[in-house]
Amino acid sequence: MLAIIGGTGLNQLGNLKITHRQVMRTPFGEPSGPLTFGTINEHEVMFIARHGYGHTIPPHMVNYRANLWALRDQGAKRVIAVASVGGIRADLIPGTLVVPSQIIDYTHGRAFTYFDGREQSVTHIDFTLPYTESLRQSVLEAAHHAGETCVNGGVYAATQGPRLETAAEINRYEGDGADMVGMTGMPEAALARELGVEYATIAVVVNYAAGRGTSKQAIALDEIGTFAQPAMARVRKILEGVVERYDN
Ligand code: HPA
Which residues, judged by CB distance below 6 Å to any ligand atom, belong to the binding site of ligand 1? Predict the structure, then answer.
C-alpha cells in the first residue's frame, strides 16, 4: 500500500475518504499520531501527519523511527513524503514543486537509525541515491498527467531547526551543492531505506531561503501560508495520480 507523510500545510488530505484510524505503538515509541486509512478515488492509502494532526511536534522532536516503523508494519511498501522547503537555487521560487534527487544531512542529535548495534551485527545501507528512482518518476509522471509543473531533481539540505537558517549558512549550503533547505528530510529518507520501503519526496517551496530573493533581510513567516495553501492543492492532485499507479 502507498503511504503519505504529510508535512506543514498538509495535516490532512481533503481527497481522502477515511475508513478508520489506528493508534500504534512501536518498539521505538509512538508515531506522530494515529495512522489514517482510507481511499483516494477508490485506491487504498494510509496517511500520517508528520507534525501531529494539530501541528504540535517540531521537526527535531518528530519520532521518525516510530512513524516509518508503523507505516511499514501496516503494510506500506512505498512512502511519498510531502515537505515544505526554502528555495536556494534561483529558479526554486515560492510556489514551486520539486521532486528532489539528493540529500545532504546537517541534522544532529536525532534518532537516525534502526541499526544501533543492540542485538544486531553491524549493518550498513547503500544510500548513494537516497530516493527511490521509480517512485520519483511516478510522481513526475503523475504531475505531468495532471498538468502540474514539477521540477525534476535537486539537492535537499536537511537542517536541524526549528530555527530558520542564517544567510551565511545558506551560502555555505549552496556552496556544498544544496538547492533547497528543509528540516524533516533526514533521518526520514534513511530510515525508509533501512526498512526497505520505497521513498520519494514532493518538496513545496514556501519561501526564499534566508538571504535570497525577498528574504534578504528576513523570512516573512506570515507569508508562507500564501504560497503553501495553493501549492498543497496541487500536491493533492498529484497524489491522486500517484495513488492510481500503485494499487496495492
Ligand atoms: N529553511 C528550513 N526549512 C524550511 C524553510 C527554510 O527556509 N522553509 C520551509 N521549511
Answer: 84-86, 159, 164-165, 181-183, 206-207, 209
What is the DSSP-derived secondary structure letter of residue 209? P
Alpha carbon separation from 23 to 28, 31, 57, 66 (Å, rounded): 14, 9, 17, 12
- Exposure letters 47-77 (e unless 16+ CB within 10 A, then b): bbbbbbbeeebebeebbbbbbbbbbbeeebe
Alpha carbon distance 209, 17 (integer Å): 35
Chain segment 21-43, per-residue pLDDT in tens: 999 999 999 999 999 999 998 99
What is the value of pTM for the model shown?
0.96
- Residue among 8, 60, 84 whose CB has most ligand 1 atoms within 8 A, to mutate: 84
Encoded amino acid at 189, one letter: A
| 209 CA closest ligand 1 atom index | 7
Total domains present in the chain: 1
Whole domain around residue 15: which residue ranges? 2-245
Nearest CA, atom 3, ligand 1: 182
116 CB-near residues (< 8 Å, 6+ apart): none
CATH number at residue 190: 3.40.50.1580
